[in-house]
Amino acid sequence: MKIAIFCGSSSSIDPAVNQEAQKLMRFFYDHQIELIYGGAGIGIMGELATNLVNLGGEVTGVIPQQLTHKEIIHAGLKKNYIVKDMHERKKMMYDLSDAFLVFPGGMGTMDEMFEILTWRQIGLHQKPIALFNINGYYDHLLRFLDHAVTMGLVKPHDRELLIDANNWDDLWKKIRPST
Question: Domain spanning 2-175 has what CATH number?
Fold first, then answer.
């Protein structure tokens, strides 16, 4: 299985994010899950990739040319694609992945999450999209989405396209491939 993780190129001040990154990459390694991510060597992105590389797991990065110096391309990857722009990055990450996981991140993470959700909403794919709400990081966003449903601007079945939980075990139960 290949899971794309959308996350920040900045580091979180919440130590729980780094702890979950380490535990998650151990899980990926133990279950032979390949990480598809944004290709950076810094921030939460770099933390996830470095953890899995150090364990001996499979990691594929996809980084836009204009970000190779800003996000510092991860030097330890066997597979790191340099693409033209953010649109090509998102498309390639989509093509390479079986599921999507949204880790804490900033505006770029939100952009990636909402675009992949929109693609699912309009029927371009059926891949699961999970939001990892570590320490309530996404509580306000989830309340906003529920409010949008209440206001009639998001349909309940579209809101349900985003699977959310505050622990990996619950998310994994909902996105793992059926055996």
Answer: 3.40.50.450
